[in-house]
Amino acid sequence: LTAMGDPSMDPTMSAPDSTAQQNSLFSMMDVFLISLITGLFTYWFFFRKKKEEVPDLPKMQSVAAPVRDSSFIEKMKKTGRNIVVFYGSQTGTAEEFANRLSKDAHRYGLRGMAADPEEYDLSDLSRLSEIDKSLAVFCMATYGEGDPTDNAQDFYDWLQEADADLSGLRFAVFGLGNKTYEHFNAMGKYVDKRLEELGAQRIFELGLGDDDGNLEEDFITWREQFWPAVCEHFGVEATGEESSIRQYELVVHTDVNMSKVYTGEMGRLKSYENQKPPFDAKNPFLAQVTENRKLNEGGERHLMHLELDISNSKIRYESGDHVAVYPANDSSLVNQIGEILGTDLDTIMSLNNLDEESNKKHPFPCPTSYRTALTYYLDITNPPRTNVLYELAQYATDAGEQERLRKMASSAAEGKALYLSWVVEARRNILAILQDMPSLRPPIDHLCELLPRLQARYYSIASSSKVHPNSIHICAVTVEYETKTGRLNKGVATNWLKNKVPAQNGSSSLVPMYVRKSQFRLPFKPGTPVIMIGPGTGIAPFIGFIQERAWLKQQGKEVGETVLYYGCRHEHEDYLYREELARFQKEGVLTQLNVAFSRDQAEKVYVQHLLKKNKENVWKLVNEGMAHIYVCGDARNMARDVQNTFYEIVAEFGSMSQPQAVDYVKKLMTKGRYSLDVWS
């Protein structure tokens, strides 16, 4: 700028001209400066505005995104509820019981809601007393060896760590368990005890349902005493008889885009066409069956070995884990239900929750067809529970049939006995009931609302991921039996798997599956001896264990004694994996192979008899070798008999009394040295 105003730049310029030029230059300079300052200010102004707006962006996004309200208290206040029924459910039964209890509430002038603990912040339990006549009920199933169900794991962890004051909370607990398992109803017992420790007030005694007996009857008996206790506590009375209240309304879609219709997917629409990991219960992987062979050489049963291809799925598993498969119902059963009810099964419909505030918008993925719902989403083969019979009774036009249905759904001793004999023991499913009650013709949409969800089936994985990283193996026996009514009942999953043909394109060879982690694990140190006891298909996880020990040996690791106690009926009929086991023994991986053939001689011989025969060696491995013991198979008889045999061995060789021996084995379990993978 100084150079521009220097007169020495042009010596020929006159003085007046120079002055004028100078004034002009200053004017231009002023304009330039003003423009520059204005530009800088403008730039700063807008830049500043943008910076201020940044914090608002997440708010704008959160409005558009679906909001999951984690406070069940706020939801209860908003919808006028005062009873919340939480459920810990693995197979859907606890959820079903929770729904029944929440529906009961209206009979007493109360309003209930069933809630999945996984969806809410359970620390809000301390605030439940803010709601008048409030009560929390917990329907808690026990899974595996005393574990919480998947959806109750966070709640269980919170209870263990919580130091909350729950003195204002009123509660009741109904547990769902199975007496054949070591830790009967452990979760229900723990929740009941822990809530009391945290200061909560129990308003009715803990209910213990036993699935090995009659779980439905246990629940009804508890429920009919529970509600009078609630009435007495809150000073309320029943407002009338139990009535049928629809939870969902039917919407039939006459003009629908078929790409928006569910065809069997468990969660995301079109998830089977466009597979995306991670794969879990709500997003199963479609695995191709690459092998399906019969394992037994004779006999009436069909025992099979299947291999599922998990290449490119990013699914990882360990020996001892479980594979869950989603089966499909037999199409002939589905068609018969459609025919009896005179329904076009290909009608596209939705069942929409009448409670708009509910997190559960539909009982199963909607919109879909009745055929899809009855094939993939609903359980049509198990005997229906009493609440289903009660709701269906109104549709029986014959007075005798209606009375029979209502009686079976009642809490009267005669009704319970009739339900036990006519439904449970006769194994009558919904189709059999419709066939045997000609006047019972309910609307198919109400039937679909009432039937429970078809659940995934779990199988112990019969392979090692070290040897088969891209394949999961299943060992299973098809379930097929004649009922007291002369009908042939078939197991849903095993018969569906039996018909999965390898090397065929299309759905005929695809299995929706995911892996569930297990605590059934080989010892951390390969040198630790293992004693494996698994008759029948209980051998499944041990095939994986032995494969893994063989692999470890090939890697140059020192592998401890690997002992197997296996049992089957006949040596030349159902001796599973005979060749593989012989090879492992020849290679020195399987150091002992003890096989009990129960029916090849006059007296039956089982695995526990072989354990007794080798009791000195068993004790030496356990006591000196610090061996890990694994039991897989039938919980009702085998697992109990094996455990009793270990009590005897420990008492004899450890010079202990019976109670001391029992305590010794229980301590082995606590330390993870005695593991069970059993079913009933």
Radius of gyration, in angstroms, nearest whole number: 34 Å
The CATH homologous superfamily of the largest domain is called Flavodoxin domain
Number of strands: 23
Instruction: Catalogue the unreliable spans.
Output: 1-26, 45-68
Largest sheet: 7 strands, mixed
Mean pLDDT: 89
CATH architectural type of the largest domain: 3-Layer(aba) Sandwich
Distance between the termini: 97 Å
Helix content: 25-40%
Q: What is the oligomeric state here?
A: single chain
Q: Report the principal-axis shape.
A: globular
Look at the structure and give the CATH class of the largest domain: Alpha Beta
Q: How much of the polypeptide forms β-strand, as a percent range?
A: 15-25%
Number of helices: 21
The secondary-structure class comes to alpha/beta
CATH topology of the largest domain, which one?
Answer: Rossmann fold
Number of domains: 4
Protein name: NADPH--hemoprotein reductase
Transmembrane segments: 25-46
Keywords: Endoplasmic reticulum, FAD, Flavoprotein, FMN, Membrane, NADP, Oxidoreductase, Transmembrane, Transmembrane helix
GO molecular function, one term: flavin adenine dinucleotide binding
